[in-house]
Design goal:
The complex is a heterodimer.
Chain A lengths: L5 H9 L4 H5 L2 E14 L6 E14 L5 E6 L5 H9 L6 E6 L2 E2 H4 L3 H6 E4 L3 H4 L6 H11 L9 H9 L4 H4 L9 H13 L5 E5 L7 H18 L2 E6 L2 H7 L2 E6 L2 E7 H6 L4 H9 L39 H5 L5 E3 L2 E3 L8
Parallel strand pairs in A: 3-8, 3-9, 6-7, 7-8
Antiparallel strand pairs in A: 1-2, 1-4, 4-5, 9-10, 10-12, 11-12
Chain B lengths: L1 E16 L2 E16 L3 E5 L6 H8 L7 E12 L2 E4 L5 H8 L4 E4 L3 H4 L6 H13 L4 H15 L15 H13 L5 E5 L7 H18 L2 E5 L3 H7 L2 E6 L2 E7 H6 L4 H8 L48 E4 L2 E3 L9
Parallel strand pairs in B: 3-8, 3-9, 6-7, 7-8
Antiparallel strand pairs in B: 1-2, 1-4, 4-5, 9-10, 10-12, 11-12
Helix pairs in contact in B: 6-7
The chains are: A alpha/beta, B alpha/beta.
């Protein structure tokens, strides 16, 4: 699976920059990333390919919000862990600013530049530890300013719409999920990162507060020039906030493109099903007909050919036989045999 | 004719610590009626008391939860029951599963992980129909599974062998096998993927069509309510703030909280700016005086701090609890 941003290719072709510069035109390059988990031993040993040849890239000088969307078990969180260096890839590579993170992970420079925000803010923080200590610790550990001084704590809290007086000496249980998630983002902003990896950052946040956190992502991108990889199953917020989207199914990216194109006129049958399953908050637009249900989801990982063929209404013989390559359709990449001629 | 009539229900969690009583006012004076054969939705954020309301209404009251006031009356065609006056042990147990039934949230924690699905079905049937013989048992379950479009082979599976969506569908099948008059569903689609969620909603609709029961659906997801419900109630901090037909509620919301909530919903195909209400929902231990939404309300007046508005009918079938509505009564 190879997804190149076409604009970058054209720019590279035109520019007369030296070769070294060219390598650095990408902030993040995920190149044929594969992660195989094994479970059991001996005869009971079995493997599951959680991430299967995933590739995408983010531009260095153009901050964007890139969404990885998919159902649970599609491998999207594993991709996040691989990018953060929490897991080692089975094959393929993640390059950050042109350097393979196999070499840079665990080093302060990389950790400063790539920061995570996790799903459940109540689990992110130790309930017995005061919330402001996390911020001070981060600033101290990354040696962001002179010893004993913490100017960045206040600044990053301001960026997320909080103030130090609001969180001083408070424990996680004394704050709402929305506030905590803001603190979690503020902590991630202290080392002044250029990439934030957010794994389901709003799924635990109340509906009346959710949009304030989502709007914050847009602000961060615009004002701080931070790129964000937004991992979610919620297509409505993805549509609202992101620039590009990649739809994942059983470890593979099946469709990539701009979020409007992909979700307004999905090409891959799986994206179409996903799109049709998002409930619309409008009683005048109730679902009219029933969709077919499958009980075979669990076995799709080990499928030969297209992972979706077992549920696809347009499946042909070829879909069961061989895995479709990525076809390029109007600037989008679609992993489906239907678009062979296109 | 209402099949369920709830009046002035107050259900608090009361705990004592070092002689100090702490009261979580989870359901604080809620009254509503559910008509026969409708799907009644209850929406609200986490911690607004919607699950506690379901517990109290279905008579699942265990300390520290206590019902302080109020009445819950079921009016089945052949029988009128006040569930809170029934004794917990035998009497309430006899109507659960048969007359009223609950579809719980986490399907993994509902099904016993070390027993096959079949044995879970056996439990519920034996408990209510007495020990039935194998042929009759198979007959009852097979008819039910066929009607729901579930495969017989799941009966021999252990819960961990099934996908999350399948487990939730089996939980629903278990809850409805005795054709209850009222089905309570507590966040049955939360934590499921959208495709599976749509399947579960389809299934609930199908059961309702075939068994002709009344469904009370609790979820925080307004988009699910829009697709499923006939009438919808919005709860905030232990109180009901608005109740209307689902069409009226979405097209003409009248409580400021409902308006804010609907405005903040992102929609596919629309990238216009959405905002959320300032502040956060209050803790139910320490609720604001007057109207509970007033600290966050864009329309709050001085009176809202001290006066607690009643839920009153402002249009036919549309009830709102807001002082702004006084003129339209």
């Amino acid at each position: 699976m190879r997804v190149h941003s076409h604009s970058s290719q054209s720019r590279n072709a035109q520019s007369s920059e030296p070769l070294v510069q060219k390598e650095h035109s990408k902030l993040l390059e995920v190149d044929n990333l594969t992660k195989v988990f094994t479970k059991g031993q001996g005869f009971a040993k079995s493997t599951i390919t959680a991430v299967n040849e995933v590739s995408f890239s983010l531009e260095l000088d153009r901050p964007e919000i890139f969404t990885l969307a998919g159902e649970s078990g599609s491998g999207k969180s594993t991709v996040a862990k691989l990018i953060l260096g929490f897991e080692e890839p089975s094959s393929g590579a993640v390059r950050f600013r042109g350097e393979d993170i196999a070499r840079t992970r665990g080093k302060a420079k990389f950790m400063k530049d790539v920061q995570p925000v996790f799903q459940n803010p109540f689990e992110t923080f130790n309930p017995l530890k005061r919330i402001d200590t996390y911020l001070y610790e981060t600033e101290r550990n990354f040696r962001m300013s002179k010893a004993g001084e913490y100017p960045l704590v206040e600044r990053s809290l301001e960026l997320v719409g909080l103030s130090l007086t609001e969180i001083k000496d408070k424990y996680p249980s004394e704050m709402s999920g929305g506030q905590l998630q803001r603190v979690s983002i503020a902590r991630a902003l202290i080392p002044n990162p250029s990439l934030l990896i957010m794994d389901e950052p709003v799924s635990m946040i109340d509906a009346s507060l959710r949009m304030s956190v989502i709007n914050l992502f847009k602000e961060l991108k615009r004002q701080q020039g931070v790129s964000i990889i937004y991992i979610t199953h919620d297509l409505a917020t993805a549509y609202y906030v992101s620039d590009r989207i990649a739809i994942m199914l059983r470890g593979q990216i099946v469709e990539t493109g701009s979020v409007e194109e992909v979700l307004d006129s999905p090409l891959h049958p799986y994206t179409q099903l996903l799109r049709a399953s998002v409930p619309v908050p409008d009683p005048a637009n109730k679902w009219q007909k029933d969709i077919p249900l499958s009980d075979i989801e669990i076995r799709e990982y080990s499928r030969k050919g297209c992972k979706f063929a077992g549920r696809c209404s347009k499946a042909e013989d070829i879909c069961n036989e061989c895995e479709p390559p990525d076809y390029r359709v109007n600037g989008r990449y679609v992993k489906c045999h239907l678009y062979k001629t296109a | 004719m209402p099949i369920l009539d709830i009046r002035g229900l107050k259900a608090y969690y009361i705990t004592r610590k070092y002689g100090h009583a702490s009261r979580v006012r989870a359901v604080d004076g809620v009254s509503f009626q559910v008509k026969k054969d409708e799907i009644y939705g209850i929406a609200g954020e986490s911690g607004c008391g919607k699950s506690t309301l379901l517990k109290a209404v279905s008579g699942l009251i265990k300390p520290p939860l206590q019902v302080l006031e109020g009445e819950v009356v079921y009016d089945f065609e052949d029988q009128k029951l006040s569930i809170l006056s029934l004794r917990e042990d035998r009497q309430r147990r006899r109507i659960r599963g048969v007359r009223i039934s609950l579809i719980p949230q986490g399907s993994m924690s509902v099904l016993n992980p070390v027993r096959r699905i079949r044995e879970s079905f056996r439990d519920i049937i034996d408990a209510h129909l007495g020990t039935v013989d194998e042929a009759r048992f198979n007959d009852i379950v097979r008819t039910h599974l066929d009607a729901l479009g579930l495969d017989w082979s799941v009966m021999h599976a252990f819960p961990h062998q099934l996908s999350g969506g399948m487990r939730q569908r089996i939980t629903i099948a278990l809850a409805t096998i005795l054709k209850p008059d009222i089905v309570f569903a507590d966040e049955p689609t939360t934590a499921l993927d959208v495709v599976v969620q749509r399947g579960v909603i389809q299934l609930i609709k199908k059961i309702k069509r075939e068994q002709m029961n009344t469904v009370i659906m609790v979820t925080h997801d307004l988009a699910v309510h829009a697709n499923l419900c006939d009438r919808l109630a919005i709860m905030y901090a232990g109180k009901m703030v608005e109740e209307a037909d689902v069409d009226a509620l979405f097209s003409n919301p009248r409580h400021p909280y409902t308006i804010v909530l609907l405005k903040s919903l992102p929609r596919l195909g629309d990238r216009s700016v959405r905002t959320s209400a300032p502040g956060a929902p209050p803790s139910l231990v320490n609720v604001p005086s007057g109207c509970r939404f007033h600290p966050r309300c864009p329309e709050a007046m001085e009176r809202c701090r001290s006066e607690d508005p009643e839920l009153v009918e402002v249009e036919k079938g549309h009830r709102v609890a807001c002082l702004l509505e006084e003129g339209s009564r």
